[in-house]
Amino acid sequence: MSFNSFSYALFLPLVLLVTHVLRRRVAGRNAFLLTASYFFYGSWDWRFLSLIWISTGVDYICGRLLDWKDMDVPIPDEAWPRRKAILLISLLCNLVLLGFFKYYGFFVESAAAFLETIGFRAHLPALNIVLPVGISFYTFQTLSYTIDVYYGKLRAERNLLNFALFVAFFPQLVAGPIERARDLLPQMRMARPVALEVFYSGFYLIGWGLFKKVVIADNAAILANDVFAASSPAGLASLIGVYAFALQIYCDFSGYSDIARGTARCMGFDLMLNFNLPYFAVNPSDFWRRWHISLSTWLRDYLYIPLGGNRRGIRRTYINLMLTMVLGGLWHGAGWTFVCWGIYHGLLLCFHRVFQPGMARLAAPLEKSFPISWFAARVFLFFHLTCISWLLFRAESIGQAWSMFRAVMTDWTLGGQVGLSAMMQVGVCAAGLVCIQIAQHVKKDMDVVLHSPLPVRALLYLAGMLGFIFLGEYGGQSFIYFQF
Amino acid sequence: MADSHSSISSSDPKSLPRAFLLALLLFLMLETGLRFVDPRHLIPYNENFPFEHYAVRYYLETAGPADISFIGSSRIREAVHLPTLADLLAGEEDLSRMSCANYGCSGASADVVEAVARLMMRQEKKPALIIYGVSPKQYLGRESNLDVCSVYWNFGDWYRVRSLHGEKAAKYFPDVFRTAIGRASLVFRYRKRPGDLASRLFSKKQVLTCPIRGEPSAWHTKLAGRNMRTTPTTPDKVREHLEYYLVDGEYPMSEEKLKCVQNVIDLCQSNGIPVVLLEVPVADILLEHYPPGTQEKFLEMTQRLSVQNNVPFFRSAELGAVLSDESFSEESHLGVKGAVVYTKAVYQTVIRPRLKPVASGP
Fold first, then answer.
1. A332 tagged catalytic
2. What is the pTM of this model?
3. Taking the CB of the first residue and of the last residue of chain A, which one, N or C, has fewer CB atoms within 10 A?
4. What ipTM score was computed for the predicted complex, to two decimals?
5. What is the DSSP string of B74-143?
6. B71 SS3 class
7. Considering only residues 254 to 283 of chain A, which have any Cβ-Cβ distance to chain B shorter than 8 Å?
8. Cβ burial, residue A160 (10 Å; 0-12/13-18/19+)
9. Cβ(A98)–Cβ(A136) under 8 Å?
């Protein structure tokens, strides 16, 4: 059951109604929400519910065993070996499941290809494993809980029902945001009656997210798919295809996050902001503070910092950055294009770290004299650097990415891959999105539409309705991040 | 990230319903405004799937079926030249007010035609004559083309088909729901028109002519000069065309599809509408490449229907239209010249004798 499906349109009002009725009975509400979440997930493939149950059970038990009752008292040295063993059990269980379902095929294929290049013809067992939807998201979410309890930053959850709901909470179960236990679990423990205005703002978020998905992302997908499916698209067509994909992936994923946040908000839960105008980033560090914030902060807190972060010298900092980004790339998918995507972002971060101080000094006069133009130029430049990464992300192979990149650099013809009608539709959608985002950026307010004067708001809502009607793609296309 | 969790109470959307209601009001004004415009000119027409079916549905729901309605696949759509028929009707005093339209759609087999006929019969205005263009393609395959048929369904149809086909049909509920919205809202119904007009304006393409509106078919306009003498069809091309449909070397005509034609006849007869089965002409080269027995089986099935239901079945040869390679744009479809000749013959042999007594009645 996807957020943009008809069945979700029936499911959501029912869940909201029952949640409202049970708003003062925490246990009843949580039991209902857990059942609804399992139903939601089971509608894809009920067999994979068992993986969620394993993850829930293992991390609940490990959490209880790791629980440190007095958080003000440091954990004594003699307790650490036992704690490490328990943490290892949790890590192994979760990562083995993730590795098996997500990476087995990739590693077997890569190993077979490698053996063949050195002269061995190996017949490694290939299992056609279906990737359980959302496994990367809920695995990371439960891991963060156990790691926080391990370090004594968080008390373990005693109530299994609350913990199971934390793992399986349906709005963010299949594609995030990857929530932290310290933020979400306390919300699960208390009654959360929803004020009418909060309900409205949640409803607005759902509408905005759906608009981004159904109107913008799915139209951009038509354009991008046509270009990436072509055998050798012309340069200008490739460029348009990459722009379209940049728009698609942003609106698809941030649209999902908005619907997730809106749904949770309508039930009285607050999920974290996952996207903060990422295409207004002026450098790679800025980009990762704005794009998929829940994953980038997870990688920072549970990978980059434990690896030593920037505290162990310059060389080690670069190694840590590269490792974090390569693993971040692999998290997205089991494929060499994702590895290259991670390497590319790692390199961008390293180069930025090297050249940023010098560049800042050189650019200071420009920034002072022409602040807006300088900002726009930086946004423009970094957007195109991001587009190169999207080329790697979307391409079927590194060869395809390279041939499209070469075409963009050498051949400025349009070819026959881009339909005028699709381009116009995407252009109209993109223009609307850019206008709203400029307003959000200038006013520094993500809810700029909600805070605009009544006539403006009404016209924007009308434009939204007409956008849905005239430009909406109702094929129910899957969200891109479901495959991760 | 302390700022990642935006506070729920940070926004101030107290006036959201007012703005939303105002937007709804503006929308209703637009909807009302549309009802003052002749909506038939707003329905976008495109001969490609699925837009052609949407056009058929919306025309039927907006203007009702024409007095003389042609149904079938693209073969009947291309076989009839409606301006010629309109001229012929205009020449007869008592037939001059009769409207004509062609609801033939690309690739439509009998189950799809049945869905069109059901929608037609639900309209208040009924046709005076239905001409069903038949060819072996009408009986092609056993499986129902539910994806196409669902375009024409209402909730009742969906429920009926669901009880026959189960989950295969159930999944089309969202499409039926959207159809229902399109039935209620003109803005939704004509939603593809602005984009269609804009893209044609920018690409400097002509707006397609629409046989549902009584105009020539879009192919007749776009490919007016094309025929099989100037652009010959090779045997390889015909074989490639047929290859797509063949199963184990046979052209698979089924009793299930025959039943659908039977249902169309039943629907017409129960509504008191005369119906005629008309063999649609195809080029000799296509007939020669059908697997042996295909044409004979088609004729046997159609004649059986004709006799059982007392419905006239006209063979192409009986109409007296002289068709040559120059008449066909390719092996399956008549070009403009052929369609003009064929339309005149159909008018003289099929339409006039059936409508003249009605039109000249009390």
1. yes
2. 0.77
3. N
4. 0.72
5. HHHHHH--HHHHHHHHHTSTTTTT--EEE--BTT--HHHHHHHHHHHHHSSS--SEEEEEE-GGGGB-SS
6. strand
7. 265, 270-273
8. middle
9. yes
